[in-house]
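Q: what sequence does this backbone want?
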């Protein structure tokens, strides 16, 4: 039998005090996939993710996470998911290694705490007390706690906020490694380069609805959007928007009999399509 998707949601509805914030929301995340939820502040990402985690109730809709309704799920289901939330709690009296060992004890088949410390780049800080970590190191400890139970599905809510560029790159490599090992990963982020680098598919949520879903290269019609071809002329720079950039470049090459001065060909970036879709739906 084919395994159920890691996450399937249809017709999800959620209001706070009578104000709908998630409405007619659908989502499918396949096993082994890295899926990035993108959307502006207040779009409903955290609400959706916390419903999937079983931390918030929903008003309507079908929700299955690893085949189970999170609202009715028990501790065996909980041990199969990992969560890295935006806010983590402090563990003032324990060292980093003690904290990990402590949480490992909650799971039926945890990963080795020292291997996890190594994986998140905290091996050297294992003996440090948690309050003595830097902000970025605290985030990495949160990731370590999210994966200590060796989850099938990992939720990451804005995981690299506050990371320096090198720490982000290391974190991305870790996520790719976890994914290569078969873990399904659902992340929310405001960093479009992060979504583009990590995600197999991106879902764009605006005002509580899923507006588009697809691979980073084609989400929002990015692959069919017009391309900007620009070049220099004695009268100044010229630009042409075209759906057939190759034909345009060939035509220019013929016109200039070879090299086209200052030629540039720019496809729409993920940021271009993101801002366009948000503009259309807000
Ligand atoms: N517990 C709550 N009570 C009332 N309103 C809430 C509650 N939680 C969230 N909201 C509102 O619901 C909307 C969606 O919030 P949510 O946190 O899901 O958005 P988000 O996409 O995660 O935003 P951000 O990118 O800023 O983290 C916002 O307007 C927010 O103010």
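A:
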């Amino acid at each position: 039998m084919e395994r159920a998707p890691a996450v399937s949601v249809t017709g999800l509805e959620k209001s706070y005090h009578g104000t709908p914030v998630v409405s007619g929301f659908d989502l499918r995340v396949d096993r082994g996939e890295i899926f990035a939820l993108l959307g502006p502040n207040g779009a409903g990402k955290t609400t959706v993710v916390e419903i999937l985690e079983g931390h918030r109730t929903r008003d309507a809709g079908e929700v299955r996470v690893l085949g189970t309704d999170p609202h009715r799920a028990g501790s065996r289901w909980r041990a199969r998911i990992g969560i890295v939330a935006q806010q983590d709690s402090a563990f003032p009296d324990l060292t980093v290694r003690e904290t990990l060992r402590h949480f490992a004890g909650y799971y039926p088949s945890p990963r080795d705490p020292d291997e996890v410390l190594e994986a998140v780049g905290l091996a050297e800080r294992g003996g440090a007390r948690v309050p003595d970590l830097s902000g970025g190191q605290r985030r990495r400890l949160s990731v370590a706690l999210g994966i200590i139970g060796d989850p099938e599905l990992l939720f990451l809510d804005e995981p690299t906020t506050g990371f320096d560029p090198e720490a982000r790159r290391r974190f991305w490599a870790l996520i790719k490694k976890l994914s290569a090992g078969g873990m399904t990963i659902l992340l929310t982020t405001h960093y479009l380069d992060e979504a583009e680098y990590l995600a197999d598919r991106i879902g764009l949520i605006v005002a509580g609805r899923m507006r588009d879903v697809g691979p980073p290269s084609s989400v929002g019609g990015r692959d069919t959007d017009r391309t900007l071809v620009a070049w220099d002329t004695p009268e100044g720079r010229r630009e042409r928007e075209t759906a057939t950039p190759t034909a345009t470049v060939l035509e220019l090459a013929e016109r200039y009999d070879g090299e086209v001065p200052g030629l540039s060909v720019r496809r729409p970036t993920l940021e271009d399509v993101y801002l366009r879709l948000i503009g259309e739906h807000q």
